[in-house]
Amino acid sequence: MPDNEGDVRNAPESYGYPDLASNRGHPGVRNIIRVQWEGRGAFPGRRVRAVRRNRMSTTVRNAVTITGNESGPPMLFAHGYGCDQNMWRFVTPAFEETHRIVLFDHVGNGRSDLSAYRDSRHGSLGGYAEDILDIVREHDLREVVFVGHSVSAMIGVLAAIREPERFAGIVMIGPSPRYINDETDGYVGGFTRADIDGLLESLDSNYLGWSATMAPVIMGNPERPELGTELTNSFCATDPEIARKFARVTFLSDNRADLPNLRVPSLILQCSDDVIAPEVVGEYVHKNTQDSTFVALNATGHCPNLSAPEETVDAIKSWL
C-alpha cells in the first residue's frame, strides 16, 4: 500500500485491516490510520479507504516526558551531544512546583526511537529544530521557556526564530554558534579546522575509545571523576552511527548569522575552563543576540547542569 493512501476495499469485520490494527498498540508504530467509510447499506457492503501517514508521535520518537505543574508555563529542556534527558535530573525539580516540565531525547539518544533518524532531516541542526517544534505543536505548548545545553542552545535558537510566537525565552548553557575559528573575520570558536578533523577521525575509528577519552575532558572538574564517568557512560549508550553523524552536524555548524534573528529574550550561562565553548564564544553570542543577558558562572567545565546544578538553577530563576 502506498504511504499516503490505500486502495478502497471491502471492510473486514475488525473495522480495519488486521495487519494495521495489530500494530496500533506497538510503541514504535509509524502510521496514523484514518478510515473513511464509503457507500450505504449493511456493514458487509460498506467500503473503506485507509490512509497511512508516515508520522510518529513525538512521545514515541523523542521519549517525551511531562511532569510538574500542569497549569504552569512550560519549560522545555534539551540535552547536549551524547546525553539524554536524565542529565537534567538535578535541575528540573527546582521548577516543578511553578512550571510544566517537558523533557525529551534527541533521536539517537536515550530512549528515543532510533528508526526515526533520517539523514535528510537530521543532517543539519535545522532538522533537530523541527523536532523541537513538533514537540511544541503536538503538546500545544505556548510561552515556552526553552533551556538548551551545548549544541541544543543553537537548536533552540533556530526553533524560536521559526516560530517565535511559541517561545517566551531561551536559556543557552555553554552555547557555540561555530566551533571552528574563522580566519577571514577573526572569529574565535576555540578549535582549528585541523582540531575538528582530528576529533572526527578519532570518533570514526574508535567511538567508545573516543568517548572514554573525551567525556572527562568535556566535563572538566577532574577532582570529581564520577562526573566524567557519568558522561562517558552516556556517550557510550548513544547509538554510535548516529553519534558520528551528529558530531559532524554539531562541530561543523555555523549559526552566527542566525543570532541577530532571535526575537525572544535569552539568557547565556557561561562556565570557566570550558574546552568546548570558551568564554570568548559566550561573549560573542551575547554581543550578537538582541535582548540577551550574559552570566558568568563560578562553575567550571561544560556541564554545569551536572557539576553545579544549584548555581545553574539560581541563575535561571533570577532571570525568569
How would you explain this protein's 3D organization?
By secondary structure, this protein is an alpha/beta fold. It folds into 2 domains: 8-54, no CATH class; 58-319, Rossmann fold, CATH 3.40.50. The protein contains 12 helices and 10 strands. The strands form 2 sheets. The chain has a 7-stranded mixed sheet with strand order 4-6-5-7-8-9-10, with helices on both faces. Strands 1-3-2 form a 3-stranded antiparallel sheet, with no helix packed on it. A hairpin with an 8-residue loop joins strand 2 (31-38) and strand 3 (47-54). Helix 6 (193-205) crosses helix 7 and helix 6 (193-205) runs antiparallel to helix 9 (240-251). The longest helix is centred in the middle third of the chain and has 14 residues, at 125-138. The chain is globular and about 50 Å long. The model is unreliable at 1-54 (pLDDT under 50).
CATH topology heading of the largest domain: Rossmann fold
Low-confidence stretches: 1-54
Distance between the termini: 51 Å
Structure class: alpha/beta
How many strand units?
Answer: 10
Strand order of the largest sheet: 4-6-5-7-8-9-10
Range of strand content:
15-25%
Biggest sheet details: 7 strands, mixed
Text of the CATH class of the largest domain: Alpha Beta
Integer average pLDDT = 84
Question: What is the C-alpha radius of gyration, as a whole number of Å?
Answer: 22 Å
Q: What is the total domain count?
A: 2
At CATH's second level, what is the architecture of the largest domain? 3-Layer(aba) Sandwich
Tally of contiguous helical segments: 12
Described by the principal axes of the CA atoms, the overall outline is globular
Helix and strand succession?
EHEEHEEEHHEHEHHHHEHEHH
Quaternary structure of the protein: single chain
- The H-level CATH homologous superfamily of the largest domain, spelled out, is Alpha/Beta hydrolase fold, catalytic domain
- Helical content class: 25-40%
